[in-house]
Specification:
Elements: E1 12-13, E2 23-28, H1 52-64, E3 70-71, E4 73-74, E5 81-83, H2 87-90, E6 99-100, E7 103-106, E8 112-117, E9 121-127, E10 133-138, H3 140-144, H4 147-159, E11 166-170, E12 180-181, H5 183-192, E13 200-202, E14 208-210, H6 212-223, E15 230-232, E16 256-262
The structure holds zinc ion.
């Protein structure tokens, strides 16, 4: 038997950035769902071995606060971005309602671009006129495979928007202090771009702490997004574990969602 009512009202937050008024965001937290234990309480992911019926109930709560059902991606740490305006792309929707990709974008009102994370970066994009929205999931693999650049290039090709008008929000992910990585990752990123060295701090145990948000911010800048148009969450999934799921804190855990749409 599962509860039929939630005990606590869901706590949702919005991106703190200077997007136009017709751009809406909703970021879920752990608060206000039906999941229990490590998944408590608002897990939205089916793939983490939580009770599937409970996850479905959590997703239904979320949908009540959105203008439509979110387009859930089957996230594979790729650099694939899907255009949700394109019915060909949507033809790749699998039986479970998922698309294999790590980013989506749209110019159509009330189409909800969504990513799920628990330490990886959720990134939102729009422009100063609110003509499109995008959501990106980027862990180190996505950053290494340049999902940010790929997504922006697809959007610019489609919309002809000037890159100087793009606005980005780098959402809550794991902070540098809590993200320990090995030497191989340092080697990979510095081989990709020597400037990445600044985002790795040496530790006495020959490991490094990696600043994922810093890498993302630099990649946005290198793609042409103005620093003044890039906004960063001040929170950390590991530090703020009352609100967010953190895979590094508990390897068995849930996922929270970052949703963006045009009104
Ligand atoms: Zn932290």
């Amino acid at each position: 038997m599962t509860n039929t009512t939630t005990l606590t009202k869901p706590v949702f937050i919005t991106a703190d950035w200077n997007a136009p008024k017709n751009v809406k965001t909703l970021i879920t937290t752990r608060v206000g769902g039906f999941s229990t234990g490590n998944y408590g309480t608002f897990n939205l992911a089916f793939h983490v071995e939580d009770n599937l019926e409970i996850v479905e109930k959590n997703r239904q709560i979320l949908s009540q606060h959105l203008p439509g059902n979110p387009y859930w991606l089957n996230q594979i740490h790729s650099n694939i971005a899907v255009d949700l305006d394109d019915s060909q792309s949507l033809a790749h929707v699998t039986v479970s309602g998922n698309i294999n990709a790590d980013a989506s974008f749209t110019t159509i009102k009330n189409t909800v671009c969504t990513v799920m994370t628990a330490d990886c970066l959720p990134i939102f994009l729009t422009d100063t006129s609110g003509r499109f929205v995008a959501a990106i999931h980027a862990g180190w693999k996505g950053l290494y495979n340049e999902i940010i650049k790929n997504t922006i290039e697809l959007i610019l090709n489609k919309t002809k928007i000037d890159i100087k008008n793009i606005i980005a929000y780098i959402g809550t992910a794991i902070c540098q202090k809590h993200y320990e990585v090995n030497h191989e990752l340092f080697d990979k990123f510095t081989a990709l771009n020597k400037d990445n060295e600044q985002f790795f701090s040496h530790k006495p145990n020959h490991k490094f702490n990696c600043n994922l948000a810093g890498i993302a911010q630099m990649q946005l800048k290198n793609t042409g997004v103005l620093n003044t148009n890039t906004f960063l969450s001040k929170q950390c999934t590991f530090c703020d574990s009352e609100l967010f799921y953190s895979y590094r804190k508990q390897s068995i855990t849930g996922r929270f969602a970052s949703c963006i749409w045009l009104e």
